Amino acid sequence: MLVHAHPDDESTGTGATMARYANEGATVSLVTCTSGELGEVVADDLAHLRGNPDALGEHRRGEIAEALRELGDIRHHWLGGPGRFRDSGMAGEDTNDAAECFAKADRDDVTRAMVEILRAERPHVVVTYDDTGGYGHPDHIAANHALMYALGPAADPAYLPELGEPWDVPKVYWMTLPRSFVKDVQAAGIEGFEPFTVPDEDITAVLDGRDHHAKKLAALRTYRSQVSLDDGDFFATLVQDPRFAIEHYVLVRGERGPGSGPHNWENDLFAGLD
Ligand SMILES: CC(=O)N[C@H]1[C@@H](O[C@@H]2[C@H](O)[C@H](O)[C@@H](O)[C@H](O)[C@H]2O)O[C@H](CO)[C@@H](O)[C@@H]1O
Ligand SMILES: [Zn+2]
Predict the structure, then answer these.
(1) Which residues of 242-259 are buried (b: 16+ CB within 10 A; e: fewer)?
(2) Needs which cofactor?
């Protein structure tokens, strides 16, 4: 199970991982916390969505449905239901304080909604952002908190038993990028990734999803409101590189399974589970 903040985050950060496990017949579920109502609309033929959060949210809900079909058989949940928690906007924007935004949502409401999904899906592995949200977006940080604060209650038989049988998630990973990745892409002229990386020795798992790079690209292409892969900017250049389908994780809960290479990286998130 993967927990992401906005439509398109799942494909950008973990699309190849999702495609690999869906291809292998594993049960892959996704929790998206907001519909991304405040995103910048990059496609001029979608200009009518600019300044119309409800319309953009509805449009992005359609985009993610199409994107997930490109990745494989993915079970999709909106945290609290579609539109329940709304996009908080980029860090520092006034919208970060809007009553209905995800970053300001009531902790009990968020935990209840996440526990309901955790107990329904009973995932052996859960993936989300690190506690910086990857790049500091309030909704990404809130998504990390939504999962991490729900792990205890989900496993507690005394917590809202009406939400289902308790479930203790065996393994949790946070997504990240190794510092070596930056050196690789800098050689290709792609700058700006350094702040979002960790030392290679801090990585615990690497999923080489290059066999699924095409699916990751196809999923990203469905997000026309947010992503243009043909404008030659650094992101468009990055995603075309097959190395973009190599996805890296740090284990933050559970036992590390067998690995390989100089840092003994796991190459399977289910490593060590029976
Ligand atoms: C990848 C991601 O998390 N995107 C978020 C982010 O989008 C950025 C935002 O629209 C900003 O104004 C742009 O300049 C930047 O290029 C975008 O990546 O924040 C949005 C608002 O919270 C969110 O909807 C989008 O999914
Ligand atoms: Zn996001």
Answers:
(1) eebbbbbbbbbebeebeb
(2) Zn(2+)
